[in-house]
Amino acid sequence: MTRKERMLAVLRGDTADRTPVLGGWIACPEHICALTGSTKEQYWADPISVSIRAYDLLGTDGLADVFVPQSKDDFRCVDRDSYVHAATDRTIEEVIAEIEAMPSPKQIESEFDFEREYGSFADELRAGQARAGNMLWMPPQWEASATLSWYEAFGYENFFLLVGAYEDHAVRLMEIAGARARCECRLIARAVEDGIHPPAVLLGEDICSQRGPMISPRFIQQHYIPQLRHGLQPLLDVGCRPVWHCDGDVTAILDMVIGAGVQGLQGFQPECGMTVEYVATKRTRDGGRLLIFGPIAVTTELPVCSPEQIRQKVHGAIEAFRGKADLVLFTSNTINPDVPLENVRAMCEAVREQP
Questions:
Q1: Rounded distance between C-alpha atoms, residue 26 and residue 49, angstroms
Q2: Which domain holds residue 88?
Q3: pTM for this one?
Q4: Under a CB-based contact definition with an 8 Å cutoff, are residues 328 and 20 in contact?
């Protein structure tokens, strides 16, 4: 099988010649340079092209975007200027006024210029696939899942105050999020039908910390899950499998999310209870196999294990999910500089040694 054929087979739920590997999240320019023999100057002159060459050399079958750090002095994609933890310059009254001024969910959907948006969306997909070459291009579409964590827009303090003390306005945000997500999912669905988007998409957001959901499961069940279900429906209508990014301890809400139509999972933190053994017990709401992007942890496995241990974990995951889920080997999150390069190589090589 070619790399694309291997990826597409597993995304569709078919049998491939081996487990495919998804790449794109190495957040360490030094590793990219070591893999390609490039200098730092060459990397920063064209980080996307140099990175794609690195993944090609690793034998990666697909790309979940290409991670480029926010700056030359860091390894993250966010910094204090791009990620607002607490919007101290805005009062809760100002936030409430902004919510009340937002268009209604009905307006959002009826006024969405689908043809115009689809044109640019399709062009971006074709350009990305052209750059990815023989690897399957499938960047995450984070906006395709109804936004729950509006803290990025309003800051943590204002967001949690909204949910706790201004529930009517928080519910309105959930409804707006569902309408926006449905518009985005319509674009993806059309691209799937046109053959320029694979039959699966990585989406979702950080709803949970390492101690569980950041807001009440009751609120999530009553007000968020219906909007998530509404947003995802266009994907399900065309057979596109939504794969949910799930950092932290999501066990309290996992069945809710799957019940809303999520058909796959990515982002496991075994130290939070999201172990291979636990995930392997889960099925879609229709009783089908989940699509798994994972499950190699960037917290408790890749940074601290030996290359041989990484190989064993890959082989163990393949065996644990065999017949229970469709597996695409991937990491729980970005591969940071604390991960030895030999462990990255071992992870990618292990699928070619699988029993």
A1: 14
A2: 84-198+216-240
A3: 0.94
A4: yes
Count of CB atoms within 10 A of residue 324's CB?
15
For the cut 90, the answer to whether the pLDDT of residue 71 exceeds it is no
Mean pLDDT of 174-201: 98
Burial of 192 (0-12, 13-18, 19+ CB in 10 A): buried
What is the C-alpha to C-alpha distance for residues 232 and 190, in angstroms, rounded to an integer?
Answer: 13
Please give the mean pLDDT across all residues of the chain.
94
Q: Is residue 334 part of a domain?
A: no
Instruction: Specify the residue for token string 């800051």.
Output: 155
Structural domain total, the chain: 1
Residue identified by tokens 């991960």 is 339
Domain assignment present for residue 251? The answer is no
Sign of the dihedral defined by the CA atoms of residues 165, 167, 170, 174, in that order:
positive
Q: Judge whether 36 lies within some domain.
A: no
The answer to whether residue 260 is domain-embedded is no
Tens-digit pLDDT profile for residues 100-118: 999 999 999 999 999 999 9
Query: CA distances (Å), 51 to each of 22, 56, 177, 292, in order?
Result: 14, 9, 33, 24
What Å distances lie between residue 269 and 287, 291, 295, 333, 334, CA to CA?
A: 24, 17, 8, 9, 13
